[in-house]
Amino acid sequence: MSDLVAGILKGDKRSISRAISIVDNNDPDSVKIIHGIFKKTKNAKTIGFTGSAGSGKSTLIGRLASEFHSLGYKVAIIAVDPSSPITGGALLGDRVRMMSVSDEIYIRSLASRGAEGGISRSLRNVVRILDAAGYNLILVESVGAGQLEIEISKAVNITVVIFNPQTGDSIQAIKAGLTEIGDIYVINKSDLEGATILYNIISDLVGNHKKLVFKCSAKLKKGIKELTRALVKLLAEEKYLSREKSILENELKDMILNEVKEKFIEKIMKSEEYRKLVSKVIKKEVEPYNAALNFANKIIV
Ligand SMILES: Nc1nc2c(ncn2[C@@H]2O[C@H](COP(=O)(O)OP(=O)(O)OP(=O)(O)O)[C@@H](O)[C@H]2O)c(=O)[nH]1
Ligand SMILES: [Mg+2]
Hints:
The chain has helices spanning 2-10, 13-24, 30-37, 57-70, 92-98, 118-132, 146-153, 169-175, 178-181, 195-205, 224-236, 238-270, 272-282, 288-299; strands at residues 45-51, 75-80, 106-110, 137-142, 158-163, 184-187, 213-215. It is α/β, with parallel strands linked by helices. It has 2 domains: 41-241, 3-Layer(aba) Sandwich (Rossmann fold), CATH 3.40.50.300; 250-299, no CATH class. The chain has a 7-stranded parallel beta sheet with strand order 3-2-4-1-5-6-7, with helices on both faces. The longest helix is centred in the last third of the chain and has 33 residues, at 238-270. It starts with a helix and ends with a helix. It binds guanosine-5'-triphosphate and magnesium ion (MG).
Protein backbone atom coordinates (compact mmCIF):
# COMPACT_ATOMS: atom_id res chain seq x y z
CA MET A 1 0.00 0.00 0.00
CA SER A 2 2.85 2.39 0.78
CA ASP A 3 4.23 1.68 -2.72
CA LEU A 4 0.91 2.68 -4.19
CA VAL A 5 0.81 5.89 -2.16
CA ALA A 6 4.40 6.70 -3.18
CA GLY A 7 3.43 6.07 -6.82
CA ILE A 8 0.48 8.45 -6.57
CA LEU A 9 2.63 11.16 -5.02
CA LYS A 10 5.12 10.77 -7.89
CA GLY A 11 2.29 11.18 -10.39
CA ASP A 12 2.68 7.65 -11.78
CA LYS A 13 -0.38 7.02 -13.97
CA ARG A 14 -0.60 3.27 -13.24
CA SER A 15 -0.63 3.92 -9.50
CA ILE A 16 -3.23 6.65 -9.95
CA SER A 17 -5.47 4.34 -11.99
CA ARG A 18 -5.17 1.48 -9.51
CA ALA A 19 -5.92 3.75 -6.58
CA ILE A 20 -8.94 5.21 -8.36
CA SER A 21 -10.35 1.71 -9.00
CA ILE A 22 -9.91 0.82 -5.33
CA VAL A 23 -11.70 3.97 -4.21
CA ASP A 24 -14.43 3.68 -6.85
CA ASN A 25 -15.16 0.09 -5.76
CA ASN A 26 -15.27 1.22 -2.13
CA ASP A 27 -12.64 -1.41 -1.38
CA PRO A 28 -11.50 -1.46 2.29
CA ASP A 29 -8.01 -0.34 1.14
CA SER A 30 -9.54 3.04 0.21
CA VAL A 31 -9.15 4.18 3.80
CA LYS A 32 -5.40 3.47 3.75
CA ILE A 33 -4.93 5.29 0.46
CA ILE A 34 -6.77 8.40 1.61
CA HIS A 35 -4.91 8.28 4.92
CA GLY A 36 -1.61 8.17 3.02
CA ILE A 37 -2.31 11.09 0.71
CA PHE A 38 -4.72 13.39 2.51
CA LYS A 39 -2.12 15.74 3.97
CA LYS A 40 -0.40 16.04 0.61
CA THR A 41 -3.47 17.38 -1.17
CA LYS A 42 -3.46 21.04 -2.08
CA ASN A 43 -7.12 21.76 -2.83
CA ALA A 44 -7.35 21.09 -6.54
CA LYS A 45 -10.29 22.92 -8.12
CA THR A 46 -13.21 20.97 -9.53
CA ILE A 47 -15.66 21.94 -12.26
CA GLY A 48 -18.70 19.75 -12.95
CA PHE A 49 -20.36 19.64 -16.39
CA THR A 50 -23.91 18.51 -16.72
CA GLY A 51 -26.52 18.52 -19.46
CA SER A 52 -28.65 16.21 -21.54
CA ALA A 53 -27.21 13.34 -23.57
CA GLY A 54 -25.50 14.52 -26.72
CA SER A 55 -25.40 18.19 -25.71
CA GLY A 56 -21.66 18.18 -26.31
CA LYS A 57 -20.31 17.84 -22.78
CA SER A 58 -17.36 15.63 -23.73
CA THR A 59 -16.47 17.73 -26.77
CA LEU A 60 -16.61 20.93 -24.75
CA ILE A 61 -14.63 19.43 -21.86
CA GLY A 62 -11.94 18.36 -24.33
CA ARG A 63 -11.68 21.90 -25.70
CA LEU A 64 -11.61 23.47 -22.25
CA ALA A 65 -9.04 20.95 -21.04
CA SER A 66 -6.68 21.98 -23.86
CA GLU A 67 -7.28 25.64 -23.13
CA PHE A 68 -6.62 25.26 -19.40
CA HIS A 69 -3.59 23.11 -20.18
CA SER A 70 -2.13 25.87 -22.35
CA LEU A 71 -2.66 28.28 -19.45
CA GLY A 72 -0.45 26.05 -17.29
CA TYR A 73 -3.07 24.07 -15.38
CA LYS A 74 -2.49 20.36 -14.75
CA VAL A 75 -5.81 18.97 -15.93
CA ALA A 76 -7.58 15.68 -15.25
CA ILE A 77 -10.99 14.66 -16.61
CA ILE A 78 -13.42 12.30 -14.90
CA ALA A 79 -16.71 11.00 -16.31
CA VAL A 80 -19.24 9.73 -13.81
CA ASP A 81 -21.53 7.25 -15.50
CA PRO A 82 -23.24 4.78 -13.21
CA SER A 83 -25.82 3.67 -15.77
CA SER A 84 -24.24 2.42 -18.93
CA PRO A 85 -21.03 3.34 -20.65
CA ILE A 86 -22.80 3.62 -23.99
CA THR A 87 -24.94 6.72 -24.46
CA GLY A 88 -25.79 9.01 -27.34
CA GLY A 89 -22.30 10.38 -27.70
CA ALA A 90 -18.96 8.64 -27.85
CA LEU A 91 -17.29 7.53 -24.62
CA LEU A 92 -15.66 10.50 -22.96
CA GLY A 93 -12.14 9.11 -23.29
CA ASP A 94 -12.63 8.30 -26.96
CA ARG A 95 -14.13 11.65 -27.78
CA VAL A 96 -11.46 13.60 -25.95
CA ARG A 97 -8.70 11.44 -27.42
CA MET A 98 -10.14 11.96 -30.90
CA MET A 99 -9.52 15.65 -30.31
CA SER A 100 -5.88 14.72 -29.56
CA VAL A 101 -5.58 16.61 -26.32
CA SER A 102 -2.19 16.46 -24.63
CA ASP A 103 -1.01 13.16 -23.11
CA GLU A 104 -0.47 15.08 -19.93
CA ILE A 105 -4.23 15.33 -19.44
CA TYR A 106 -5.44 12.35 -17.41
CA ILE A 107 -8.84 10.87 -18.42
CA ARG A 108 -10.87 8.37 -16.45
CA SER A 109 -14.45 7.04 -16.10
CA LEU A 110 -16.09 6.08 -12.81
CA ALA A 111 -18.94 3.64 -12.28
CA SER A 112 -19.71 4.26 -8.59
CA ARG A 113 -22.80 2.14 -8.40
CA GLY A 114 -24.31 1.26 -5.06
CA ALA A 115 -24.94 3.09 -1.84
CA GLU A 116 -26.69 6.39 -1.66
CA GLY A 117 -24.16 9.19 -1.63
CA GLY A 118 -21.65 6.70 -3.03
CA ILE A 119 -21.03 8.76 -6.12
CA SER A 120 -20.05 11.94 -4.36
CA ARG A 121 -17.95 10.06 -1.82
CA SER A 122 -16.14 8.23 -4.57
CA LEU A 123 -15.75 11.43 -6.57
CA ARG A 124 -14.30 13.39 -3.65
CA ASN A 125 -11.75 10.66 -2.99
CA VAL A 126 -10.82 10.35 -6.66
CA VAL A 127 -10.27 14.12 -6.71
CA ARG A 128 -7.98 13.71 -3.68
CA ILE A 129 -5.92 11.07 -5.46
CA LEU A 130 -5.54 13.27 -8.55
CA ASP A 131 -4.78 16.29 -6.38
CA ALA A 132 -2.05 14.42 -4.48
CA ALA A 133 -0.66 13.29 -7.85
CA GLY A 134 -0.19 16.92 -8.89
CA TYR A 135 -3.35 17.72 -10.89
CA ASN A 136 -4.80 21.06 -9.91
CA LEU A 137 -7.92 21.22 -12.07
CA ILE A 138 -10.39 18.36 -12.31
CA LEU A 139 -13.18 18.52 -14.91
CA VAL A 140 -16.08 16.18 -14.15
CA GLU A 141 -18.63 15.05 -16.74
CA SER A 142 -21.84 13.62 -15.35
CA VAL A 143 -23.98 11.39 -17.49
CA GLY A 144 -27.27 10.48 -15.98
CA ALA A 145 -30.56 11.48 -14.47
CA GLY A 146 -31.32 14.69 -12.59
CA GLN A 147 -30.61 13.30 -9.13
CA LEU A 148 -27.08 12.34 -10.06
CA GLU A 149 -26.39 15.77 -11.44
CA ILE A 150 -27.60 17.42 -8.28
CA GLU A 151 -25.45 15.13 -6.18
CA ILE A 152 -22.37 15.90 -8.28
CA SER A 153 -23.06 19.62 -8.19
CA LYS A 154 -22.80 19.43 -4.40
CA ALA A 155 -19.36 17.84 -4.62
CA VAL A 156 -17.66 20.27 -7.04
CA ASN A 157 -16.59 23.91 -6.77
CA ILE A 158 -18.38 25.10 -9.90
CA THR A 159 -21.19 23.59 -11.97
CA VAL A 160 -21.55 24.28 -15.68
CA VAL A 161 -24.90 23.37 -17.23
CA ILE A 162 -24.81 22.74 -20.97
CA PHE A 163 -27.78 23.16 -23.29
CA ASN A 164 -28.35 21.90 -26.78
CA PRO A 165 -30.40 23.86 -29.31
CA GLN A 166 -31.14 20.62 -31.21
CA THR A 167 -33.51 19.32 -28.53
CA GLY A 168 -36.30 20.68 -26.36
CA ASP A 169 -33.68 21.39 -23.73
CA SER A 170 -35.20 24.43 -22.09
CA ILE A 171 -38.29 22.56 -20.91
CA GLN A 172 -36.33 19.52 -19.81
CA ALA A 173 -33.93 21.78 -17.97
CA ILE A 174 -36.65 23.34 -15.89
CA LYS A 175 -38.14 19.96 -15.08
CA ALA A 176 -34.79 18.58 -13.97
CA GLY A 177 -34.07 21.64 -11.84
CA LEU A 178 -30.95 22.32 -13.90
CA THR A 179 -31.52 26.07 -13.91
CA GLU A 180 -30.98 26.05 -10.16
CA ILE A 181 -27.72 24.15 -9.86
CA GLY A 182 -25.57 26.00 -12.40
CA ASP A 183 -22.95 28.66 -11.77
CA ILE A 184 -22.47 29.03 -15.52
CA TYR A 185 -24.87 28.14 -18.31
CA VAL A 186 -23.61 27.29 -21.76
CA ILE A 187 -25.62 27.08 -24.95
CA ASN A 188 -23.39 24.76 -26.96
CA LYS A 189 -23.72 24.14 -30.71
CA SER A 190 -24.06 27.86 -31.41
CA ASP A 191 -23.30 26.92 -35.02
CA LEU A 192 -26.78 25.37 -35.23
CA GLU A 193 -30.15 26.99 -35.68
CA GLY A 194 -32.07 27.87 -32.52
CA ALA A 195 -29.01 28.71 -30.40
CA THR A 196 -29.86 32.40 -30.04
CA ILE A 197 -33.49 31.68 -29.14
CA LEU A 198 -32.37 29.16 -26.53
CA TYR A 199 -29.78 31.64 -25.23
CA ASN A 200 -32.54 34.20 -24.68
CA ILE A 201 -34.83 31.68 -22.98
CA ILE A 202 -32.12 30.47 -20.61
CA SER A 203 -30.99 34.04 -19.88
CA ASP A 204 -34.55 34.87 -18.85
CA LEU A 205 -34.83 31.72 -16.77
CA VAL A 206 -31.70 32.34 -14.75
CA GLY A 207 -32.71 35.95 -14.22
CA ASN A 208 -30.10 38.27 -12.79
CA HIS A 209 -27.20 36.07 -13.68
CA LYS A 210 -27.42 36.98 -17.34
CA LYS A 211 -23.70 37.53 -17.60
CA LEU A 212 -23.13 33.90 -16.73
CA VAL A 213 -24.89 32.57 -19.81
CA PHE A 214 -22.53 31.79 -22.69
CA LYS A 215 -22.92 30.70 -26.26
CA CYS A 216 -20.25 28.56 -27.83
CA SER A 217 -19.51 25.94 -30.41
CA ALA A 218 -17.28 23.18 -29.11
CA LYS A 219 -17.14 21.80 -32.63
CA LEU A 220 -15.92 25.02 -34.25
CA LYS A 221 -13.91 26.11 -31.17
CA LYS A 222 -15.95 29.29 -30.86
CA GLY A 223 -16.41 31.00 -27.50
CA ILE A 224 -14.05 28.59 -25.72
CA LYS A 225 -11.51 31.21 -24.67
CA GLU A 226 -14.25 33.47 -23.26
CA LEU A 227 -15.74 30.57 -21.30
CA THR A 228 -12.31 29.59 -19.96
CA ARG A 229 -11.68 33.16 -18.81
CA ALA A 230 -15.03 33.26 -17.00
CA LEU A 231 -14.27 29.95 -15.27
CA VAL A 232 -10.81 31.09 -14.16
CA LYS A 233 -12.36 34.22 -12.72
CA LEU A 234 -15.10 32.31 -10.90
CA LEU A 235 -12.63 29.85 -9.40
CA ALA A 236 -10.73 32.73 -7.82
CA GLU A 237 -13.82 34.26 -6.20
CA GLU A 238 -14.18 34.01 -2.45
CA LYS A 239 -17.61 32.39 -2.79
CA TYR A 240 -16.18 29.48 -4.76
CA LEU A 241 -13.16 29.07 -2.54
CA SER A 242 -15.38 28.89 0.52
CA ARG A 243 -17.54 26.32 -1.21
CA GLU A 244 -14.66 23.91 -0.62
CA LYS A 245 -15.26 24.31 3.10
CA SER A 246 -18.95 23.49 2.85
CA ILE A 247 -18.19 20.51 0.60
CA LEU A 248 -15.83 19.15 3.24
CA GLU A 249 -18.29 19.78 6.01
CA ASN A 250 -21.07 18.00 4.12
CA GLU A 251 -18.79 15.09 3.40
CA LEU A 252 -17.86 14.75 7.05
CA LYS A 253 -21.51 15.07 8.11
CA ASP A 254 -22.55 12.33 5.66
CA MET A 255 -19.83 10.04 6.92
CA ILE A 256 -20.76 10.60 10.55
CA LEU A 257 -24.44 9.97 9.79
CA ASN A 258 -23.59 6.77 7.90
CA GLU A 259 -21.45 5.48 10.75
CA VAL A 260 -23.99 6.39 13.38
CA LYS A 261 -26.80 4.80 11.37
CA GLU A 262 -24.94 1.53 10.91
CA LYS A 263 -23.86 1.30 14.52
CA PHE A 264 -27.31 2.19 15.84
CA ILE A 265 -29.13 -0.22 13.55
CA GLU A 266 -26.97 -3.08 14.74
CA LYS A 267 -27.58 -2.15 18.36
CA ILE A 268 -31.32 -1.64 17.92
CA MET A 269 -31.90 -4.93 16.11
CA LYS A 270 -30.26 -6.81 18.92
CA SER A 271 -32.15 -5.06 21.71
CA GLU A 272 -34.87 -6.75 23.72
CA GLU A 273 -36.91 -3.57 23.76
CA TYR A 274 -37.07 -3.47 19.97
CA ARG A 275 -38.29 -7.09 19.80
CA LYS A 276 -41.01 -6.31 22.31
CA LEU A 277 -42.05 -3.23 20.38
CA VAL A 278 -42.38 -5.23 17.15
CA SER A 279 -44.76 -7.70 18.79
CA LYS A 280 -46.75 -4.88 20.36
CA VAL A 281 -47.23 -3.29 16.94
CA ILE A 282 -48.23 -6.66 15.46
CA LYS A 283 -50.82 -7.13 18.23
CA LYS A 284 -52.01 -3.56 17.54
CA GLU A 285 -51.30 -2.53 21.14
CA VAL A 286 -49.42 0.48 19.83
CA GLU A 287 -49.36 2.17 16.45
CA PRO A 288 -46.02 2.39 14.61
CA TYR A 289 -45.68 6.18 14.47
CA ASN A 290 -45.79 6.65 18.23
CA ALA A 291 -43.81 3.49 18.83
CA ALA A 292 -40.97 4.78 16.62
CA LEU A 293 -41.01 8.25 18.12
CA ASN A 294 -40.90 7.00 21.72
CA PHE A 295 -38.22 4.48 20.91
CA ALA A 296 -36.06 7.11 19.18
CA ASN A 297 -36.50 9.59 22.03
CA LYS A 298 -35.49 6.92 24.53
CA ILE A 299 -32.24 5.96 22.78
CA ILE A 300 -31.09 9.49 21.95
CA VAL A 301 -30.29 10.84 25.36
N1 LIG B 1 -22.89 21.13 -34.51
C1 LIG B 1 -22.26 20.90 -33.37
N2 LIG B 1 -22.12 19.65 -32.93
C2 LIG B 1 -21.46 19.44 -31.75
C3 LIG B 1 -20.93 20.50 -30.99
N3 LIG B 1 -20.37 19.96 -29.88
C4 LIG B 1 -20.55 18.65 -29.95
N4 LIG B 1 -21.20 18.31 -31.08
C5 LIG B 1 -21.59 16.97 -31.54
O1 LIG B 1 -22.63 16.46 -30.71
C6 LIG B 1 -22.50 15.04 -30.56
C7 LIG B 1 -22.44 14.69 -29.09
O2 LIG B 1 -21.25 15.23 -28.53
P1 LIG B 1 -20.64 14.72 -27.15
O3 LIG B 1 -19.52 15.63 -26.81
O4 LIG B 1 -20.37 13.26 -27.18
O5 LIG B 1 -21.89 14.99 -26.20
P2 LIG B 1 -22.10 14.52 -24.67
O6 LIG B 1 -22.98 15.51 -24.05
O7 LIG B 1 -20.80 14.27 -24.04
O8 LIG B 1 -22.87 13.15 -24.89
P3 LIG B 1 -23.16 12.02 -23.77
O9 LIG B 1 -21.89 11.79 -23.02
O10 LIG B 1 -23.60 10.85 -24.55
O11 LIG B 1 -24.26 12.55 -22.91
C8 LIG B 1 -21.25 14.66 -31.32
O12 LIG B 1 -21.63 14.21 -32.59
C9 LIG B 1 -20.46 15.95 -31.42
O13 LIG B 1 -19.61 16.01 -32.53
C10 LIG B 1 -21.07 21.82 -31.50
O14 LIG B 1 -20.64 22.83 -30.92
N5 LIG B 1 -21.75 21.97 -32.68
MG1 LIG C 1 -20.05 12.53 -23.08
